[in-house]
Amino acid sequence: MSWALLLGLLAALLLLLLLTRRRSRRPGEPPLDVGSIPWLGYALEFGKDAASFLTRMKKKHGDIFTVLVGGRYVTVILDPHSYDAVVWEPRTKLDFHSYAVFLMERIFNVQLPHYNPNDEKAKMKPTLLHRDLQALTEAMYTNLCTVLLGDTTEMGSGWHEMGLFDFSYSFLLRAGFLTLYGVEALPRTPQSQAQDRSHSADVFHTFRQLDLLLPKLARGSLSAGDKDLMCRVKSRLWKLLAPARLASRAHRSSWLESYLLHLEEIGVSEEMRARALVLQLWATQGNMGPAAFWLLLFLLKNPEALAAVRTELEHSLSQEEQPVLQMTTLPQRVLDNLPVLDSVLNESLRLTAAPFITREVMVDLALPMADGREFALRRGDRLLLFPFLSPQRDPEIYTDPEVFRYNRFLNPDGSEKKDFYKDGKRLKNYSMPWGAGHNQCLGRGYAINSIKQFVVLVLTHFDLELISPDVVVPEFDLSRYGFGLMQPEHDVPIRYRLRL
Ligand code: HEM
After folding, report:
1. What is the pLDDT of residue 18?
2. Member of which family (predicted)?
3. Per residue in 220-244, pLDDT tens?
């Protein structure tokens, strides 16, 4: 037998030993379930349908357990009373960014020298709040008008047909891109707006191709053809968002200015900056459109809810001096005074927002649960909260949790309902579409304003209806982070026309 063959055999034997070596549960640790496939554990089941898998595990082990998923030990917590212990733990113990860095490098091919997420966050945070938030909201309304009203006017009067997901995703992402990354020219002219429409449509269509491939890329299951397409789509996006190309754009957000300055300060190359900007397009624009899709779909499927939103809107707008069709911005006081629409938004996010809240365990630590138990966590493991199952779809907290009830988040006096209970105790985190704690979504103010502006624009300027009113609300594939993946062939056909 040759040496090479012998060495190969030894390596294979060692690998087999490593794969079959099982970790055992130590005293004080959560129940451990490694499944029956060495190393992979439950990776396939988890990847296919995380919600069903975690529901099954919860029945088997209770609301805290550790599972093996593709070589990683993941401790899952499903008791919403205990979430605060995780989301407020300092970064030195439970780290949010390790997974973000993995995503950044593996999915978006971004490597930043001297990358310090805390520093980046400190610089970016102010650009999404207070006066900057107001500027973003105003720009968003103008850009929504440019793409939504402009496109429809260009297409001529009468009914137009498309899928509701495509409708919501494309208009929100295009307006969001123009808001954050800048427009063709200021003051706007009909020509510059036409360019904004075609450029943003190009960005959206290219981005959407990438969006559809990402879950496969994350699972490592791209075919050779997919890989080719992915390469082409990524390089097209890197060109579209190249800093040199963005340099001449007008009315760029302070978010973009600060981000570019930050990249420059840490010495990021021109090429890598373009990649980072594509990653940011996904991080900032990937969820608003899908969230707006679910909201509009629930309204179209629930005439009572739609009528309540319309009545509230008509009442609120009738207090304004200017008719809505002439408004160039929607006053913040209007946006802040729509409790029925807020309840509809909260309810549709409760039903559809499914982020995985993950943290890296940085040191061995004891995790206190709200009921007084304490569990030992091992350094190097991962922690996962999945609020989609509980609180959001927990029958103890919400009666008929699968059902859309537009007024679920309204008190009888019309104010926002915030008291929800589990095990007789009031919940602090009763719905978590934006996460919670140290790493709660920084863009939520901008996202909420944008979704509401979009819905107000659609309801005030358009007739919009389902082509088949009996259409079944589609199931979504949770393999896409956030709001599930919607394949174009499963989209819900609608028709819409500008109201004269
Ligand atoms: C419907 C739209 C959106 C949803 C549902 C959403 C959801 C979330 C969630 C769940 C997290 C926390 C993840 C965790 O704790 O593990 C998060 C974080 C974050 N989001 Fe959003 N997001 C949305 C839109 C936006 C937008 C528009 C922006 C910026 C313009 C943004 C910026 C951020 C940032 C910067 C973080 C990380 C915060 C940190 O580093 O601590 N998000 N988002």
Report:
1. 59
2. Belongs to the cytochrome P450 family.
3. 889 999 999 999 999 999 999 999 9
88, 350, 444: residue to mutate for ligand 1 pocket, most atoms within 8 A of CB: 444
What pLDDT was estimated at residue 220? 85
Residue 284 C-alpha to ligand 1 middle, in angstroms? 7
Does the pTM surpass 0.85? The reply is yes
Cα 440 to ligand 1 centre (Å): 7
Cβ-contact 127, 446 below 8 angstroms: no
Indicate which atom in ligand 1 lies nearest the CA of residue 291.
1
Residue 31: how many CB atoms within 10 A of its CB?
15
Q: Do 463 and 110 contact (CB within 8 A), yes or no?
A: no
- The answer as to CATH 2.40.110.10 being correct for domain 117-498 is no
pLDDT digits (tens, 9 = 90+) for 177-231: 999 999 999 999 999 999 999 999 999 999 999 999 998 898 888 999 999 999 9
How far is the C-alpha of 33 from the C-alpha of 30, rounded, in Å?
10
State pLDDT tens for residues 158-177. Answer: 999 999 999 999 999 999 99
> Does 441 appear as a known binding residue?
yes
- Binding residue per annotation — 109? no
Q: What value does the mean pLDDT take over residues 31-45? A: 96
User: Per-residue pLDDT tens for 336-388?
Assistant: 999 999 999 999 999 999 999 999 999 999 999 999 999 999 999 999 999 99
